[in-house]
Design brief:
Blueprint: H1 6-19, E1 24-27, H2 29-36, E2 44-47, H3 51-57, E3 61-65, E4 70-75, E5 78-84, E6 86-88, E7 100-102, H4 105-110, E8 120-122, E9 127-129, H5 134-140, E10 142-143, H6 149-155, H7 158-170, E11 173-174, H8 176-185, H9 194-206, H10 210-219, H11 234-245, H12 253-261, H13 266-275, H14 280-297, H15 304-311, H16 316-329, H17 335-345, H18 349-352, H19 360-365, H20 372-387, H21 393-405
Parallel strand pairs: 2-5, 10-11
Antiparallel strand pairs: 1-2, 1-8, 3-4, 4-5, 6-7, 8-9
Helix pairs in contact: 6-8, 7-9, 7-10, 10-11, 11-12, 11-16, 12-14, 12-16, 13-14, 14-16, 15-20, 16-17, 20-21
The structure holds adenosine-5'-triphosphate (ATP) and magnesium ion (MG).
Adenosine-5'-triphosphate (ATP) binds next to helix 7.
Amino acid sequence: VKATTFRSAAEQVIGKLHQAGFSALLAGGCVRDILLGIEPKDYDVATSAPPQSVVKLFRRTEQVGARFGVVLVRVGRFQVEVATFRTDGDYQDGRHPDSVEFGSEAEDAKRRDFTINGMFCDIRDDRIIDHVGGREDLERRLIRAIGQPDRRFAEDHLRMLRAVRFAARLEFTIEPSTMAAIQQHAGELPSISAERIREELKTILTDRHRSPGWRLLVESRLSDHLIPGILWNENEAESVGHRLDATNAPLDFMTALAALLLPFDPVRADAACRSLACSNQERKGVRWLLEQLPRVHAWRTLELADIKLLSADDRFDQLLELMRIDLIASGSGTELHDDLKACCDAITPDQIAPPPLVTGDDLITRNVPAGPLFARTLDAIYRAQLNGDIASRDDALAMLEELLRD
Ligand code: ATP
Ligand code: MG
């Protein structure tokens, strides 16, 4: 049978495991989402079948975490994660359990992070199996660590950011003793890899609940340990919140990071992106946005050439958006932004970055040596062209002769 939905793919996997005599249940995030009436992103299956049996039962499998008993099963275009019931052994490093042991369904529920993520669903009768009080917390809209919060965050520091992510995205509250444990362990965040921190931060900041997400990062004190050397004081943290609040439109990660790093100078922001292991494009983009922001705020003092050069950049829309949210956050109207946008919209596309009237070849013919003078001359002529001071190649060549005479 062809699976047409992710759910039917998971159902096929579960059906086959049942036929082979194993227990198999929907598990974790998908059960939470089903109960919330949200379409799950993916469906995970938990089973009593050991990994080698899972691999034998299905044609297309991939062992991702053999050690952890996780097998990916491909059904049509879907990939169902099938994990053997297990208990996690001790964590020495705050990142990975040192060992796992296959265990019971109840033990598998208890090794999960939060009560709302710890439920199973038996699809044969849509029965929810809840060993951890997840249903009640779902109704009370609470993010609560399973077991002793203090121990659970000591085991795996990434869970602290996950708590913030789920609370923000679902508009839930972090239960007080869970929040207290996060505050207590926040300082251990830097021991997890920059990539994992960045990915969680990206998920939090690009979601439409980014400003509650930011406020939870601050309240939990995780914000103090997100990026080495970057600390937001109370006022700065509040301004970040206002900026993230300033629009309902989606914000890409680069712009959101710039909104976060706005209190810091562009060089430090660049270093911050480096320590978050951002892509070069993201890092350079954040730096460019922060370097150009003061210029666009003062755009009325710029020449037309500057405005054209700025607006020719493919990050200009992000710069305008950053300017707009910064204006709104600081309580100014958006007039300065709206006027700049109108000014740019009035420039026809062929005028923004027209081909230069004079090129390097013209300078070479005139024996101008390579070096600073060469670049400065070309730049001056191109700026004059963008400013509309010269309009033809003859004008441009005349300007060149004049510059070379001086
Ligand atoms: P999302 O909708 O964002 O995918 P999710 O709850 O499905 O949320 P996943 O990261 O896909 O989250 O993980 C699936 C399940 O695995 C979780 O619901 C949880 O039960 C368990 N889990 C994931 N990460 C951890 C962790 N760090 N510690 C304990 N359990 C975890
Ligand atoms: Mg998931």
